[in-house]
Amino acid sequence: MFDSLNRCPLCGSLVRTTGKLLCPDCWSGCTDALLSHSYSHFCTDCGMPLETAQSGCPRCRADPAAAQLHSRSLFRYAGVIREALLMYKFHDVRELSRLFAFLLDQFVSSFTDRSVIYIPVPCSHESRTRRGWDQMALIAQQLERRGAEVEYGIGRTVRSAQQKHLGKTERHLMPSGSFYRRALPPTASGSQQLYILIDDVYTTGSTLRACSALLRESGRTQIIGLTITMD
Ligand SMILES: [Zn+2]
Ligand SMILES: [Zn+2]
After folding, report:
1. Which of 57, 108, 115, 140 is the most exposed place for a label (fewest CB within 10 A)?
2. How far apart are the CA of 28 and the centre of ligand 1, in A?
């Protein structure tokens, strides 16, 4: 009998190569879905893939708030990666945190050689209570295991009774009240450190912008957003 660690967490087939998390088919399914494999141009604000070089996508050009934070996403929220995220978050397949950490780290090393600090966006209090763990914190821990630096600089408050009654769209539009800044070490003056806020899904960008505004208050100015998927 093989234990679950010897099976690909996405399709269940046996993984015969030591140290590999996914089977070869699922691995190529993931890497083929990387937006950077299919597109050369991206919106400089939200990271939306574009067919031609333009200064921004139509959505960001219509919304000046989008320019407050430059973001990128590794994948669209679709196909094998959507399945992987759902298995990770809702079926407790926590070993997938290794995969997401690897993909984030690999992407970051492909575009910068600057010193980087990852800051995970915390999940909601409800999700944390239901699941018992925080999906981005777990990925951040895997990044630390890979040698990356992480600051758990953003906290999340319990949603107020008033917010609970808002629809999904309204909550997306006003999430800033549910984040707060934790005590963070002072930044060295003239620091060239790049802070990378990481989250699982980019929807409107308002979550990343709210978190980045909090980090700016602590003197962290060079911040970008990076999400596993874009919805
Ligand atoms: Zn597989
Ligand atoms: Zn855009």
Report:
1. 115
2. 9
